[in-house]
């Protein structure tokens, strides 16, 4: 179903203000605009400033408005998540409320607020304005099912979950496979509250629940969630241009969102399937010992690599530091960047393997683009995603850590060898390519996710609260 651009109605898209949440919602927005909706992305003032510092021209396919999280001048050095989440809820609700009032007065009242499921308060604000609310899950169906089935076993900082956990459609999950909020709730009380308890607090009142996943990947698992919520799988949130050439005019738009990094030019010079792409997402701060082992393992492997080493906010100082002498020692083989257009890198012919932390977006992107993975999760849902990558979808392998929890340089070298050459590498690639085809089928016209998006658009356009 294609309607004339902008004629299908206006929706707001409100992500939780970190990259791993903005990216999939931005990609989903792109699809909605292709279906004819007018989309306004609502981000915090900080996000807006960061986006404009990277690229002065906003993405052309949508409008941008901002709300405030109460920290318009940046996060404090003594950043505390619970203070932040409280402020985001309080100031965010007020500023979203004012935004909806203003848009109504300007005659562009949205039909629906598509809000990140980490921001359940947005549903209350939307409903107070008589506007539909669609929760958007940026984590897997498996993770959300675990939260749904076990949320009554959590209290503040504690859980009485016993492992292993057995859920139909999932592998047996040991404690080390569970999202860290479930296995170590005492370490992450603020996340536990936000991600498990608050997220589910009003989800049964949402008019739609959209999930960044697709039927052949997690269809069987989705049944439990679908009993509780009006669930629609609309993913993977990867533009079709990377899966085929369906939306050819979008090519390059992601690269434009970030600082120009000549990473793609560097990759053009490398042989086909010769390079490992290493990235631990936007938030992970790797301790010094682990950075050293990865660095010297990469060096010893003698393989080409692109490594994203994020510059971290002040409260994570001392992490993500490269060892002395590494850049000089690897200057002919490696490129270290602070950010890159990941979708373009993963779809580059030179890339043979993705060493990843298994954030849900990176997992879906690697899988959808047919790239074998080395799965090295650090915390949150990454642990469960990694279990599925290696044991269920069979597109990746897990490095073994020593008794300090560190993956040593010899293990880095071994994993790269196995993931890039020989029978294990070939099998993972075959599996990954199969998943890539299934992802493409889901998004192609008439595919399961495409149909779900069409139904969502049609319902939004013709239904009132
Ligand atoms: N990403 C990117 N460039 C980079 C590193 C990451 O574009 O150099 C994107 C990546 O494609 C993904 C998102 O940032 O869409 C990271 O989300 P993910 O869920 O994988 O991890 P998180 O950052 O939330 O831990």
TrEMBL record:
Keyword Cell cycle belongs to the record: no
Top-level taxon: Eukaryota
Record's GO cellular component terms: cytoplasm
Keyword Transferase attributed: yes
Cross-referenced Pfam families: UDPGT
Chain segments annotated as transmembrane: none
Keyword entries, A-Z: Transferase
Gene3D superfamilies for the chain: Glycogen Phosphorylase B
GO MF term set: quercetin 3-O-glucosyltransferase activity; quercetin 7-O-glucosyltransferase activity
Protein family per UniProt: Belongs to the UDP-glycosyltransferase family.
Family matches, as PANTHER family: GLUCOSYL/GLUCURONOSYL TRANSFERASES, GLYCOSYLTRANSFERASE
Protein name, as recorded: Glycosyltransferase
Lineage of the species this protein comes from: Eukaryota, Viridiplantae, Streptophyta, Embryophyta, Tracheophyta
